[in-house]
C-alpha cells in the first residue's frame, strides 16, 4: 500500500508541475528571443546535466548493451519526440488547448495497450475513446475558427503537434514498462536524456548560441530554471517512480490534472480565455478518461473468468454428487 501511495504521489506531483509549465513556457516564448526548439534543447541538456550529477551520489548500476539500445528507443519516444512536438506545438497554440490534448494520453495508452499488451477492448473502453476523441475534435475545430490556413493554421497545427507528442509518450508508457522496472530512476533518466541531447543538439545549438542571455530579465531566468529543473528533471524522475509502482493506464490517468492547473494559471495571468466550447470539450475529455481508466484490465477479466470457471466446476461437481446420492 505504501509503494502504491508513493506512485500516486509521484504522478500527481509530476503532472502538477507539467500543468504549471504550459503557461510559463508560453511566457518564455513571449520574450521573442527564445524559440520553442531552443527551449526543448535547453530542457534536454539541463536535465541530462542534473541527472548525471545526481548519479555521482548514488550506487552505480551496470546497464547492458541491449538495454542501452532500448533506452535509446525509450528516449526517442519519451523525451525527444514528446518534448520536441509538445514545446513546438505550445508555441503555436494556447496553454489550455495543449493541456487538454495532453489529457488524451490515457485513452491513447489504452488503445496501444490493446495492440502491444493484448489488453481487451471492451465496450466501456470504446465508449470512453469516442468521448475523449470527440472532446479533442471540438478543441481543434474551435481553434480552427477564423483561420484561413485550415489545418496548417497556427493554432490547429499546434494542437496536432501536441497530439503527436502525447502519442509518443503513450508509446513510452506501454512499450517500455519492463525496462523501467529493471533500473533506478536516475540511471534510466541520465541515459535517456543523454541520448535525447545527442539527437537534438546538432540541430539546435545555433539557436541556443544566438540567445542574448546577458539581456534577459531575472524573471525569464527563473522561468527557465523552473522548466528545466522542476518540469523536466524532477517531473521525469517522478514519472519513473510512478511507472515502477502503477499500471500504465493508472500512470497516464494523472494527465487530467494538467488542464486544471494550466487553465487556472493561464486565465489568471490573462494569457488565455475560457469559453463554453472549451468547457464542454474538457468535460468530454475528462469523462472519456474516467470511463477508459475505470474499465477492467486484462488481468481482472482473466481472474473473473477463472473464478467463474471454478464456481461452475464446483456447481457441476455438487450436482453430480447429488445425483449419486439419489441413486
TrEMBL record:
Residues 6-140, 157-293 form the EamA domain. It is a multi-pass membrane protein. InterPro entries: AA-Vitamin_Transporters, EamA_dom, EmrE-like. The keyword Membrane applies. One of its GO terms (cellular component) is membrane. It is found in: Membrane. Keywords: Membrane, Transmembrane, Transmembrane helix. Signal peptide: none annotated. SUPFAM superfamilies: Multidrug resistance efflux transporter EmrE. It comes from the Bacteria. Its main location: membrane. The chain crosses the membrane at residues 12-34, 40-57, 69-92, 98-115, 127-144, 156-176, 188-214, 220-239, 251-270, 276-293. PANTHER family: EAMA DOMAIN-CONTAINING PROTEIN, INNER MEMBRANE TRANSPORTER. Belongs to the EamA transporter family. This is Membrane protein. It comes from Barnesiella viscericola DSM 18177. The lineage of its organism: Bacteria, Pseudomonadati, Bacteroidota, Bacteroidia, Bacteroidales.
Amino acid at each position: 500500500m505504501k509503494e502504491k501511495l508513493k506512485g500516486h504521489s509521484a504522478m500527481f506531483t509530476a503532472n502538477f508541475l507539467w500543468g504549471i509549465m504550459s503557461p510559463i513556457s508560453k511566457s518564455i516564448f513571449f520574450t521573442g528571443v527564445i524559440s520553442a526548439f531552443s527551449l526543448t534543447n535547453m530542457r534536454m541538456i539541463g536535465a541530462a546535466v542534473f541527472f548525471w550529477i545526481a548519479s555521482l551520489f548514488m550506487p552505480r548500476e551496470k546497464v547492458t548493451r541491449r538495454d542501452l539500445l532500448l533506452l535509446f528507443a525509450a528516449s526517442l519516444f519519451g523525451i525527444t519526440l514528446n518534448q520536441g512536438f509538445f514545446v513546438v506545438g505550445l508555441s503555436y497554440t494556447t496553454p489550455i488547448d495543449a493541456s487538454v490534448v495532453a489529457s488524451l494520453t490515457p485513452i491513447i495508452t489504452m488503445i496501444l495497450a490493446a495492440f502491444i499488451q493484448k489488453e481487451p477492448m471492451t465496450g466501456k473502453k470504446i465508449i470512453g475513446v469516442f468521448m475523449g476523441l470527440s472532446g479533442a475534435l471540438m478543441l481543434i475545430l474551435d481553434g480552427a475558427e477564423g483561420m484561413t490556413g485550415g489545418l496548417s493554421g497556427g493554432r490547429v497545427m499546434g494542437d496536432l503537434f501536441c497530439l503527436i507528442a502525447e502519442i509518443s509518450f503513450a508509446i513510452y508508457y506501454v512499450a517500455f514498462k519492463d525496462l523501467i522496472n529493471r533500473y533506478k530512476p536516475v540511471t534510466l533518466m541520465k541515459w535517456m536524456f543523454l541520448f535525447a541531447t545527442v539527437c537534438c543538439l546538432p540541430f539546435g545549438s545555433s539557436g541556443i548560441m544566438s540567445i542574448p542571455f546577458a539581456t534577459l530579465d531575472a524573471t525569464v531566468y527563473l522561468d527557465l530554471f523552473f522548466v528545466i529543473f522542476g518540469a523536466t528533471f524532477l517531473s521525469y524522475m517522478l514519472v519513473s517512480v510512478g511507472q515502477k509502482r502503477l499500471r500504465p493506464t493508472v500512470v497516464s490517468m494523472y494527465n487530467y490534472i494538467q488542464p486544471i492547473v494550466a487553465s487556472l494559471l493561464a486565465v489568471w495571468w490573462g494569457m488565455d480565455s475560457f469559453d463554453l466550447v472549451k468547457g464542454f470539450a474538457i468535460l468530454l475529455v475528462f469523462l472519456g478518461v474516467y470511463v477508459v481508466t475505470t474499465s477492467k484490465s486484462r488481468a481482472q477479466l482473466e481472474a473473473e473468468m477463472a473464478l467463474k470457471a471454478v464456481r461452475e466446476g464446483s456447481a457441476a461437481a455438487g450436482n453430480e454428487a447429488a445425483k449419486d446420492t439419489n441413486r
